[in-house]
Specification:
This protein is mainly β. The protein has helices spanning 86-90, 125-132, and strands spanning 2-3, 21-23, 39-41, 56-58, 76-78, 95-104, 110-119, 136-137, 144-153. The chain has a domain at 2-21 and 75-153: TonB (TolA/TonB C-terminal domain), CATH 3.30.2420.
Length: 154
């Protein structure tokens, strides 16, 4: 059984007797100021005749990074909780916790699942990756990341 709470997803992703606690990663960055574009004219030297015009040396302008879009709230379509792994039962593991990061596409499918922290290590990872990679969301319109905390109790 997986326990927790899903504040924005009432009833979504709940296993018998439990649910999921989810947190969305907020990504923030400031807009960088536009770089200064300079043109440098090389001075005449002994090797360069004084009457010839030296070629200017220029640098290209780099566009500033746009501010990130407003945070997007994901709305679950398919949100089945991970099962308690039989391997954990056989090993006598009665509880655990996994923090995972979902990489959600603009279309609302999960592209990748990263395990950020697991206790005990590597016991629940495969089942979490399997279940969360099948989750789907209403299309958010842009790719984003979502952090999910899962508590396992037998």
């Amino acid at each position: 059984m997986v326990q927790g709470s899903a504040p924005s997803q009432q009833g979504a992703g709940q296993a018998a007797g439990g649910g999921l606690r989810e947190n969305t990663l907020a990504l923030s960055s400031a807009v960088a100021p536009a770089p200064v574009v300079t043109t440098v004219i090389a001075p005449a030297t002994a090797d360069t005749p004084a009457d010839s015009t030296p070629a200017p040396i220029t640098t290209a302008a780099v566009q500033p990074v746009p501010a990130p879009a407003a945070p997007v709230e994901l709305h679950a379509r398919k949100h089945d909780a991970p099962q308690y792994p039989p391997r954990a039962v056989r090993a006598g593991v009665t509880e655990g916790h996994v923090e995972a990061r979902l990489w959600v596409t603009a279309e609302g499918t999960v592209d990748k699942v990263d395990i950020l922290h697991a206790n005990p290590p590597r016991v629940f990872d495969d089942e979490v990756r399997r279940a969360l990679s099948q989750w789907t969301f209403d299309p958010p319109g842009r790719a984003l990341q979502k952090r999910v905390d899962l508590d396992f109790n037998q």
